[in-house]
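User: I'm preparing a small set of examples for a lab meeting where we compare how different chains pack in three dimensions. I only have the primary sequence for this one, and I'd like the structure in C-alpha cell form so I can line it up with the others. Please keep the answer compact; I'll paste it straight into my notes.
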Amino acid sequence: MTKWPRFILAALLLLLLAACRDSGSAGDGSGKAEPEGGEAASPAYSRYAEPIELRIGFKVPDSRLNTGDSNDNNPITRYLESITGVRVIHSWEAKGEEVFFQKAQLAIDSNDLPDALVVNREQLGKLIDNRMIEDLTDIYEGYASELVKDIYDSTNGEALGDATRNGRLYALPNVAIHADSPALLWLRQDWLEKLELPPPQTYADIERIAKAFIELDPDGNGKRDTLGLSGYRNIVYGTKPHVAGLDAVFSAYHAFPTNWITDSSGNVMYGSITPETKQALGKLADWYRQGLLDPEFALYKETQEPIIAGKSGMFFGPWWMPYYPLSEAVALDTKAEWRAYAAPLDDSGKFVTHMAPVTDRYLVVRKGYEHPEAVVKLLNAFTRLERRQDPNLAEVDKMDDFAAETGIQPRAYYPFDLLIDYSDAIEKHYADIQQALHDKIDKDTLDPDTRLIYDHWIAEEEQPKKNLEGWKAVNAYKYGVAVLTSTAIERVRSVFYGTTPLMQSKWPELQKLERETFLNIIVGDAPLSAFDTFVAEWRALGGDEITAEVAALSGG
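Assistant: Understood. Below is the C-alpha cell output for the 556-residue chain.
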C-alpha cells in the first residue's frame, strides 16, 4: 500500500472538511443544511438541521384564503418549511404588481432590504451599483438543483446573463415563456352564440360585438347593465400582458408603446411616439366615446372587477386567463363560457404581438444575509413542486386537495413570485396532450406536468365544471394555447430593456407625461392632436437624448 506523505494527508483532510461544509452537511445545530439520504443528501434539497429565518417582501396574490390560514402560514408555506428548514417571515406585503415594486423601491431607497426580494430590471441595476446584494455566483453553482440549472440552460445563457455583471451572478431571474407574450381577445362565447354573432377578427368585428353586448341584454336579466370591452387604467402593460391591457389594439396598428423598436430605416425609436401609436389612440378614443370601451375602466381599484362580476363581455389577456380571473367569474356564474381569439388582425390579416424580454424580474439576496443558499434551496423546492417532480407524493396530494377545495393554486403562496420553466413549455405540453388524446403516443409516457393536464382534460370532458381546478388548466390550454399554436404570429422584439444613465433622472417624468396624455386622449379630456404636443414635449424633456443612449447601447 502506498504510504502518503503527512502533508498530503493533511491537505486531503482539509479538502474533505471543506466539501462537507460547502454542501451544508454539518448537523451540529449551527444552521447548516443536513442531508437525509437519497435526493435530500444533495446540497440542492438538504434540510437545515436547525430552522433558519428568511425575511422577505411578499406579493399578495389575487386569490383569497378562506381557510383560517394566513399569507405566511398555510399548507404551502408549512410544507416548504418542513422540507427545507427555512422559516419564511414577511417583512412586508403588497397587493398587486405595481404596489409591490413601489414598496421594493422604498426598501431600496431607505437601505432597509428584507433578506430576499424580487426586483425589476432597474432596481437590480441600482442594487448592484450600490453593492447592496450578495454575489450568488458560487452559491448558484453549489446549490442550484439540476432541474433549475437545466431550465436556465434552455435559454442558451440569456436568462442568467441578464442577471450577471462583469462575469458575476447577482440574482436568480425568471424565465419568460414564449406563450406569455401575446394578448388574446377573451370573449363570452355564450353571449356571442345567443346573439348569433360571428367570431371576431377585425376592429370592426370587435366594435359590432361590443355594441351588441351592451344593447341586446346578452345575460337575459332585462337590464342594460352589461359591458362591451374592459380596459386597464394604465392602457398597456408594455412587455408581458395581463388582465384587460389594450396592447393588442396597438399591435394591430404595428404600434408598440413603451417598447424600443426600429423604424423602416433601422433607426431606434421609442414605440410610444410613433404615428401608429397615435392611430391606435384615436381608435380607443372613438370606442370610449361610443361606450364600447367600459366608461369606468380607469376607475376600478382592481382591473378584473367587472369580469369577475359577470358584466364584461370581452377583454384582452394572455393564454392563462382561465386560471385567473375567469375561474372566479365562472365560479360565480357556471353558465359563463369564455373563448379566446387572435384579434384584432392588422390590415393584411396578420396577428401581431410584441415579445416579452427573456427575463423581467430578479430574486436578490441582501448583502450580509448569513444564509444566501437558503434562497436557492427554496427556489429548488418550489420549482420541483411546480413542475410536478416532487417525490413527496403524500404531501403533494394534500396540496392538490387544498387547491381543489379552495381554488387556490399552490404557486400563489410560494415565497417568491418567480416561476421558471422551459421557454417553449406551454406549446410542448399542448402538442403532447393532443398526441395522447388522439392515441398517437401513450399517455403513460407524458411528463408529470403534462400528464396532470391530460388527466384534467379527460375529467373535464366527462363532467364539465365539476372540478374548477381542472377547468382552469383545460380551458387555458384548450382555448388559449390552441389559438396560439394554430395562429401565424408576427412577433416583434424590443431592441432594449435596460436603463440608460439619463433615464435615472428623466424617465419618471416622461412616463408620467405619457400615461396622462394617453388616458386623457382616450377618455376625451384631450383631443387626438394632444399626441403631437406630447411627442414634442417628450423629445424636449430628454427623450431624444435617451433615444441616443439606447441606440448606442443596443447597437442601433
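A couple of notes for your slides: The radius of gyration is 25 Å. The domain at 43-176+360-413 is CATH 3.40.190.10 (D-Maltodextrin-Binding Protein; domain 2).

User: Perfect, thanks.
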